[in-house]
UniProtKB/TrEMBL annotation:
Source organism per UniProt: Teichococcus wenyumeiae
Annotated protein name in UniProt: Uncharacterized protein
Lineage of producing organism: Bacteria, Pseudomonadati, Pseudomonadota, Alphaproteobacteria, Acetobacterales
Length: 231
């Protein structure tokens, strides 16, 4: 019997300042892989596997460990990279609690998850909707059917190549696209400029977002999604 693949959590985001003492102590405990002495009153801390939320490792994912770092501007940032047991309840509760610790604006994309049971490159970007972290939809899959190239889509959608754009512009674009995804809005594409069928619709915007996030913050799975190689 094949075991269900584990989930993955990747975050790079500023922490609120100041953090409530109980939350700060709980975060430090979880970063050390242990239970806090006085757990916050949140469902996450009633889960039996909460201690591995930020420290879990597995063969499913090439994670890098979790820690707090001091950024150049003096802000404290949470860098989280962990594998989680294949339990949707743990992942959901973890996102809910961690989201409340982060200093984010609506539309910011601080990382991604790989849901339990999914292939290791089947990531879901995380966007802040103003109250919580919400996973966006899946990225398009290369199913062998004819479709436009990713490079042609980028041009038709008016999106820059991340390596050729300034960071503030990229982050503004990423935030704009995330807000549209959160609201269920369809963004325009000049389909006459495409070099093949427009099969993947708004999922191609998520593919560009994943490309931009990897360029900006290094948040990516071990190997880029195959469709990126056609760019």
């Amino acid at each position: 019997m094949t075991a269900i693949r584990e989930a993955r959590l990747e975050l790079d985001a500023p922490l609120r300042h100041p953090l409530p003492l109980q939350e700060a102590e709980a975060l430090v405990a979880l970063l050390a892989g242990r239970l806090p002495r006085q757990p916050p009153a949140h469902p996450l801390f009633r889960h039996p596997d909460v201690a591995v939320l930020l420290t879990g490792e597995s063969l499913d994912h090439a994670t890098r460990g979790s820690r707090i770092v001091q950024a150049a501007a003096g802000e404290a940032r949470l860098l989280a990279s962990a594998s989680l047991i294949p339990c949707p309840a743990l992942l959901s509760a973890g996102l809910d609690w961690l989201g409340g610790l982060l200093a984010l604006q609506p539309g910011m994309v601080p990382g991604f998850i790989v849901p339990p049971g999914m292939a290791r490159h089947d990531l879901r970007l995380l966007a802040w909707d103003g109250t919580r972290l919400r996973p966006l939809g899946s990225l398009p899959e290369d199913d062998g059917l004819p479709r436009c190239s990713f490079a042609a889509f980028r041009e038709a959608a008016g999106l820059p190549l991340p390596a050729q754009e300034e960071e503030p512009v990229l982050r503004a674009q990423l935030q704009r696209l995330a807000l549209a995804q959160l609201r269920g809005e369809c963004l325009p594409v000049a389909q006459a400029r495409l070099d093949g069928p427009f099969r993947d619709g708004q999922a191609l915007f998520r593919l560009w977002m994943a490309e931009a996030l990897a360029w900006l913050d290094g948040l990516t799975t071990a190997t880029a999604p195959r469709l990126l190689h056609a760019a």
